[in-house]
Design brief:
Elements (H helix, E strand, L loop, with lengths): L15 E2 L4 E2 L13 E5 L14 E5 L9 H13 L7 E6 L4 E7 L11 E4 H8 L13 H13 L3 E3 L1 H15 L10 E4 L6 E4 L24 H10 L16 H11 L3 H10 L3 H11 L10 H23 L2
Parallel strand pairs: 1-5, 8-10
Antiparallel strand pairs: 2-3, 3-4, 4-6, 5-6, 7-9, 9-10
Helix pairs in contact: 1-8, 4-6, 4-7, 4-9, 7-9, 8-9
């Protein structure tokens, strides 16, 4: 485990130029996911003192239709820090050779001085426990099967440390940012043979399909209407179903409610996490993000929209949890 969930202070006058960075020996063009991304190695020496030298970073940029989507990764990381949720650092970066902007995301294994953890993607787990699991569409992706799997591991002497609290935190985080893409390969388990029969959940990575990235700037004014905002939030769905045979995916907050109904002890954990949320802190995060001078900046209009969206989601979650 490394710097996930830690505040990494990136000066606004230091967006990271990755033009001269070398590609990773194994995966220069990273094969997972839909958006273009490159796995790179940071230089041994650079002007960016907040980076780890000679460490893997994933440079992730956006489709032409939504060129500023990468900002969702960067904002989500900082919201995760505020909520004390282990999200890998996502920093502002660009490639001056190709005129591309993106999020530079710190790789969560292979930290200096640490033994190399093995990463097992959630998709590998789902394939192993559900016969005929369709990894491409993931329609059988469900919490109940995941829960049974981790419980069964413990029964045979192999323990995934703190897995239930992790899922509680991740589902709360996804509800707060409106993440609709927490599919089976966007979570996983880390294991190192030197740690015996104990594994750990991987940090909460790949958070860019969130925060209303698909809403065009010309449409943002519509969301000042509370009814329009509420309709949008209600429409959102998590990738997970609760049971394998459920007809549809769960609405974000409904998934949290079902989790608390089964595990009432999680209510205090969720309430404590929600108590960490500060509207003024969120505003300061958004203001800071608008100050980076790159070719695809975070506009003030999108910053205001995202801030309003997160606050509205927080209010929805808080209201439902307080009513239980």
């Amino acid at each position: 485990m490394g710097r996930e969930g830690q505040w990494i202070e990136q000066p606004v006058n230091q967006p990271i130029n990755i033009a001269d960075w070398k590609g990773d020996d194994e995966f220069e063009v990273y094969p997972e996911g839909a958006r273009d991304k490159s796995l790179l190695k940071s230089p041994e020496q650079s002007e960016y003192g907040f980076l780890i030298p000679n460490h893997r970073y994933l440079f992730k940029h956006s489709f032409d239709r939504h060129p500023d989507q990468f900002w969702a990764e960067i904002i989500a990381y900082q919201v995760g820090c505020m909520m004390e949720i282990p999200v890998p650092p996502a920093l502002v970066a660009y490639d001056s050779d190709n005129n591309i902007c993106g999020a530079l995301i710190e790789w969560f294994v292979g930290y200096p001085g640490q033994p190399e953890d093995r990463f097992f993607a959630g998709g590998d787990i789902m394939v192993s426990i559900i016969h005929g699991f369709d990894r491409k569409k993931g329609r059988q992706h469900n919490f109940s099967s995941i829960e049974k799997h981790f419980s069964a591991l413990k029964c045979v002497g192999f323990h995934v440390y703190d897995w239930l609290n992790y899922w509680c935190d991740m589902l709360l985080f996804d509800a707060l940012i409106g993440n609709t893409d927490r599919h089976q390969d966007n979570w996983g388990v880390l294991w190192n043979q030197n740690k015996g029969n104990v594994a750990y959940m991987a940090p909460v990575f790949d958070n860019g399909t969130s925060l209303g990235y698909e809403i065009l700037e010309s449409k943002m004014a519509n969301f000042t209407n509370p009814t329009r905002m509420q309709t949008y939030i209600n429409k959102g769905r998590h990738h997970l179903r609760w049971h394998i045979d459920d007809e549809s995916q769960c609405q974000h907050v409904d998934l949290l409610v079902q989790l608390m109904e089964k595990y009432p002890e999680l209510k205090n954990r969720i309430k404590n996490k929600l108590a960490l949320f500060q509207k003024e802190h969120l505003r300061s995060i958004m203001t800071l993000c608008t100050k980076y001078r790159i070719n695809i900046p975070l506009s003030q209009a999108r910053a205001d929209f995202v801030c309003g969206l997160i606050v509205s989601r927080f209010q929805v979650i808080n209201k439902r949890i307080s009513a239980l």
